[in-house]
Amino acid sequence: MIKLSKDIDLAKKWLDAEQVIAIPTETVYGLAGNIYSEKAINAIFETKKRPFYNPLIVHIHSANQLTDLVEELPEKAAQLAAAFWPGSLTLVLKKKDSVSNLITGGKDTVAIRIPNHPLTLELLAKLDFPLAAPSANPFGSISPTTAQHVADYFPECLPMVLDGGDCTNGIESTIIGFENDVPVLYRLGAISKEEIEQVIGPISIKNHSKITSSTTEAPEAPGMLTKHYAPKTKLILTDDVIATSKKYELQQVGFLLFQDIEVTNSSSTKEILSNIGSYKEAASNLYAAMHRLDQLHLDIIIAQKFPDIDLGKSINDRLERATKN
Ligand code: TXA
Ligand code: MG
User: Where is the YrdC-like domain (predicted)?
Assistant: First the structure.
């Protein structure tokens, strides 16, 4: 049985023994193991049912650890690390040979971040190794933002969730790589494109629109797989919630709304992501609201499209992927 606990020493004990446990971060919970243990890394892929071509993010507690892991740090990467670490930014950098191909899906680059969660930072500082950690959900399903979400996904196959409470940012980190030293945005996330551009200037988003989960070739950042973050219930995304709601009047509908909208459906449940119209608050509530609606066995979830700016853009990215189930 899985144990929910705040005991950092117990977490260290499991990790030192090459076991996989779940850890909290400010974005989502991760499924963590010692990057130097083949046994632990294999167990992460096995637990998540994740294809091996989809690489893992390495979590460190200090930028000093980069020298063990990467060959070089482009200037713009250093600027981004200084601006956002600890925080929800993942940098994809040229890896050293010491980083196993198992972690990187055979790529010559490795994805790295310093998460901004007090329990996990303390844990990382006590360990003699960094932690590889994908989001702690089965491949393709909604990411977990509470310890209970993780326990519901993996009741039997993990010894422990380090319980750090609700994830404050609530969507995954923003991923940036470098192609000939030019920064490229691989995954929209908890740090907005605009915030990134304030530090390093304009950045392009790698277009992954043609990639689907049945693509056999490894995508640049499979976080960009079109089917991802999907609830089991069919979800539709719309600019016009009222018009769409009228098409489903006789059905059990879940509404996933940025702010409150009056609907007339007789059988409906509403999740309002931010009463004050804050994108940040909406992002932090997004996955928990999707989890709740998904448990109600509704006929359909109608989600409101966000304005396509700031974190609204990252939220729309996740909602669009959630329509592809
Ligand atoms: O917020 C987060 O990033 C969370 C927490 C736990 O840190 N982690 C997370 O991991 O979202 P995961 O495995 O669900 O997503 C990692 C993404 C994948 O899309 C993967 O393809 C991409 O990072 N990635 C990892 N290594 C890469 C590399 N070398 N090149 C390009 N993309 C990479
Ligand atoms: Mg994930």
Answer: 5-191
C-alpha 257/C-alpha 255 separation (Å) is 6
Residue found by looking up tokens 């030192």 in the block = 16
What is the CATH number that goes with domain 3-224? 3.90.870.10
Q: Is the dihedral of CA 266, 269, 275, 278 positive or negative?
A: negative
Q: What angle do CA 207, 143, 55 make, to 5 degrees?
A: 55
Return the biggest CA–CA distance within the chain.
Answer: 60
In this structure, what are the phi and psi dihedrals at residue 318, rounded to the nearest 5 degrees? -70, -40
Helix (H), strand (E) counts: the chain: 11, 15
Which sign, positive or negative, has the C-alpha torsion 219, 149, 42, 129? positive
Question: What's the pLDDT at 229?
Answer: 72
Instruction: Report how far apart, in Å, the C-alpha atoms of 110 and of each of 52, 121, 129, 133 are.
Output: 14, 20, 15, 12
Per-domain boundaries in the chain? 3-224, 235-322
Architecture of domain 235-322: 3-Layer(aba) Sandwich (3.40)
Q: What is the mean pLDDT of residues 197-211?
A: 80
Nearest to 223 by CA among 54, 30, 52: 54
* Ligand 1 atom at minimum distance from 190 CA: 1
Mutate to test the pocket of ligand 1, among 45, 57, 104, 284 (most ligand atoms within 8 A of CB): 57
Question: pTM for the full model?
Answer: 0.94
Nearest CA to ligand 1 atom 33: 221
Q: Which of 23, 50, 172 to mutate to test the pocket of ligand 1 (most atoms within 8 A of CB)?
A: 172
Please determine, for the modelled complex, whether the ipTM score is greater than 0.90.
yes
Angle between helices 118-126 and 8-16 (to 10 degrees): 50
